[in-house]
């Protein structure tokens, strides 16, 4: 597919077979969903409608989202939102599915991008497209790849909110000590190795790069290489039945990780659940580079650009891939907000009002400035809050430009998988066995594919 063609059009072209398959498998818009969108109920209420918002934001991002909720509450007297922090994305999702069996549910919930299929399959969420159609809500200002990622059968399920992608964080001071140009960060994994060798040889740092053992980065590398992660067009023309990463590209990536660690050019920070260990490795001088989420941008600059780390000057660049000219593009990361259908109709409408407010350009600009998440609205990037930030700190623009660049194709569209968590666990476990137990990279990758396929088969069988 040519890059100029939008991902939204691509998904619409695949709408009919996907809708038929989801109806057969229990996903999509099959029976059990209401096509009605509650409108006008909030206005009839005597007092403000109280709704619960479960989220998974931490550090600076948590401060920003809770401040924005307070601003929303103060801006009108019809809806009052109570934000409830539920831990990590995984914690939030686990608590939600536990509550489905008996317990208090939120009215609106922030969910990681990879859990979209599970939320749809749960049959407990309101399809945002129903309200978008009923209100004639214009989505043309939204980034097409973001809308398409969260769409099934050409219809949007959640309201997008916090979009991110992985970027390269690097210490410009360490680059200078090693004789490297801090304005020319590595663009390929081969260059990461080359730069790491110079950084180590110069004594500027102990290792060139701190690597997190995460499935997300592996998926992004596959996408940038133009390689679909799963069959059936990444699960978009039909439910995925198997993964496709056990190929030459996957083996090249596993081998690169293994050799970087073995040669002392990279240090593993393990699963890095908090997201802080890799950044602290840069701050301490143990490494000069790391790959991390753009969502941590504000926290990164709040921590590393402080008096505690005087030898660190943070640079931000696009995520290095196997080739300088990617065959694909970066995938959508981050999360979105789902409205819960088990809430009363008036609370569903109140949740929709809040979700729309979060999507407005002014709020997307505030969210970007306060967190580093990418604005989902193009017009948000023209507001003074964003233009001033980008002029003063251009690194905050890197992830936005990265999302709009690259090839838009099957690989960069993102993968639709029910057992996404299990598949990522299989990939990370394989990395650990490769690095800690000495398992051959090709064998480790094959084992990850086998475990992933078993998880997919079990999930698909269970929801039929």
Give an overview in words.
It is built from 21 helices and 13 strands. The protein has 464 residues and is an alpha/beta fold. It is globular. The two termini are 32 Å apart. The relative contact order is 0.18. Strands 1, 2, 3, 4, 7 and 13 form a six-stranded mixed sheet that branches. A five-stranded mixed sheet has the order 10-9-11-8-12. A two-stranded antiparallel sheet has the order 5-6. Helix 4 packs antiparallel against helix 17, helix 13 crosses helix 21 and helix 20 packs antiparallel against helix 21. It folds into two domains: 210 residues, 3-Layer(aba) Sandwich (D-Maltodextrin-Binding Protein, domain 2); 207 residues, D-Maltodextrin-Binding Protein, domain 2. The protein is 47% helix and 14% strand.
Lay out the secondary structure.
Blueprint: H1 7-13, H2 15-25, H3 41-44, E1 49-55, H4 59-75, E2 79-85, H5 89-100, E3 108-112, H6 116-121, E4 125-126, H7 128-135, H8 144-149, E5 151-152, E6 155-156, E7 159-164, E8 166-171, H9 172-177, H10 189-202, E9 207-211, H11 215-224, H12 231-235, H13 248-262, E10 266-268, H14 277-284, E11 287-293, H15 297-303, E12 314-318, E13 333-340, H16 345-359, H17 361-371, H18 384-392, H19 398-404, H20 420-436, H21 441-463
Parallel strand pairs: 1-2, 1-3, 9-10, 9-11
Antiparallel strand pairs: 3-13, 4-13, 5-6, 7-13, 8-11, 8-12
